Amino acid sequence: MSMVMEHSKEKKLLHTLFLCFGFGIMAWLPRFPEVKANLKAGRS
Fold this sequence. Notes:
The protein is mainly alpha-helical. Helices cover 66% and strands 0% of the residues. The protein contains 2 helices and no strands.
């Protein structure tokens, strides 16, 4: 079964997906040093 989607709807869904991923990265970015310290990860 193939689903046909309008170009504008597909584009809107893709923008929404990228927006969600962007917010996810923005939420984690300030916590990277804390997570790195908790994992005791250093530069190798």
